[in-house]
Amino acid sequence: MKEETKLVVLGRDSRANHGIVNPPVYHASTVLYPTVKDLESRSDWPPKSVTYGLHGTPTTFALEDAIAELEGGFDAVITPSGLSAIILALMAFLKAGDHLLMVDSVYGPTRRFCDTTLARFGVETAYYDPLAGAGIKELIRPRTKVVFVESPGSNTFEVQDIPALAQEAHQAGAVVIMDNAWASPLFFKPFEKGVDISIQAVTKYISGHSDVMLGSVTATEEHFPQLRKTALELGLNGAPDDCYLALRGLRTLDVRLRRHQETGLALACWLEGRPEVDRVLHPGLESDPGHELWKRDFLGASGLFGAVLKPFSKRAVEAMLDHLELFKMGYSWGGYESLILPTDPAPGRTATQWRAQGPSLRIHAGLEHVEDLIADLGKGLERLRNA
C-alpha cells in the first residue's frame, strides 16, 4: 500500500465505530468492570486494552497504530508533547551510572534535560560531533547505553550518517534513539536505517495546524515492552481531543509536506543568490555539505531550514524581522504558517564549534504562495541592508 493511501486508512475501523469515518473521541478516566473476576483479571499488557483513561483509549490507540505503521516500527506510545516523548525515550533506557552519547546539534530542551535532570539521576552525557559517523566507535564506553541522533541537526541542519552510527552502537550493545521530527514519518524511515526508537513531535507536521501539543515514541518489537512500561510508570499519555486533531492532520500530511518541501527549496535557492546571505543551511541544496547523505537516506525535505547572514548588527536584523508581513516570529514549526526566528547556535555547542561571521536565522516555509513569501523576505532584506 502506498504512503498516500496509508495516511487515509490507518487508524480507522469504521466497522467498530458504527460506520463513522473518523475514530470518535473517547474521554475517559474510570473504566467500569461488571464483575470482581473482570476487575481482577484486567491487564495493561498487551497494549490496546481499555483499563483506565490514563493508559489509553481507542482514540489514542488509533493514532499510535497509524504512526507506528508509517515509521515502520512495531508499536508506538503517545505522549503530551514532543519534549515528553524525548524524556520518555531516554528514561526508558538509561539508569544511574549509564553513559549517554548525545549529538552536539541536538534540540535545546533535550540538552537541558540531559544536563540537569539526567545528571541529577547519575547519568553521564557526552556530546559528539554530528559528523562523527562510524567514528562514534572511539567515543563508546562500556557504560554507553544510548546513542542519540537528530538529523538534520536543530538550527544548523547537519545530516548524520545514521546507518554507520547505528552499526557501531549496536556492536557495543547500545540503543539508538532518533528525533525524527524534521522529516516526519514520510521522509525518513528510521527502522530501515538501524534506529531502535524513533521520536516524533506530533505537535509539528503530523498535526500541522499549530494548535496541538503531542509527541510519539515508536519502537522495535524488542524495545517496545520497556518503553510502554516506562510510559505507564511515568503516567504519560496524550489527551484524546489532541489525538483526534492529530489523526485529522495525519490525513493531509502527504499533500502538506510536499508543498512545504517545494516552497522551502524555492526559498532556499532564492536566498542563496542574495548578497545579504553568507550561506543557506538546507540539506536539499546541492551546495550543502550534507546533501549526498540526505539524498541517500531521506525521501524528501520538510520546510524547515536555516540561513547565515553576512555580518549585520542586531539592530539591522531587528529591522528586517520586526516588520515582516507573512513570516511571523514564534517558536515551534510544522504548521501551515511561515515562521522566522533569529538563532545563535554557538552557546549550545560543547563538542564542536559553530563558526559564523554573521547572525543566523531559522525559517519555516508555510503553505502561502511562494511568490508572496519571496516578496516579504525581499522587503525584509532591503530593510536589513538599509539599517
In short:
The chain has 387 residues and is of the alpha/beta class. It is built from 13 helices and eleven strands.
Alpha-carbon Rg, integer: 22 Å
Strand content: 5-15%
Q: Tell me the helix content.
A: 25-40%
Mean pLDDT: 96
Query: What overall form do the CA principal axes indicate?
Result: globular
Q: Spell out the helices and strands N to C.
A: HHHEHEHEEHEHEEHHHEHEHEEH
Distance between the termini: 54 Å
Helix count, DSSP H or I runs of 4 or more residues: 13
**Main sheet properties:** 7 strands, mixed
Instruction: Give the strand order of the largest sheet, numbering strands 1, 2, ... along the chain.
Output: 1-7-6-5-4-2-3
Q: How many β-strands, per DSSP?
A: 11
Structural class: alpha/beta
Low-confidence stretches: none
Plain-language structure description:
The protein contains 13 helices and eleven strands. The protein has helices at residues 3-9, 36-40, 58-71, 82-93, 108-120, 162-171, 184-187, 224-234, 240-250, 253-272, 291-297, 314-322, 370-386, and strands spanning 75-79, 99-103, 124-128, 144-150, 175-179, 197-200, 215-219, 277-281, 304-309, 339-343, 360-364. A seven-stranded mixed β-sheet has the order 1-7-6-5-4-2-3, sandwiched between helices. Strands 8-9-11-10 form a four-stranded antiparallel β-sheet, with helices on one face. Helix 7 links the parallel strand 5 (175-179) and strand 6. Helix 3 (58-71) packs parallel to helix 9 (240-250). The mean pLDDT is 96.
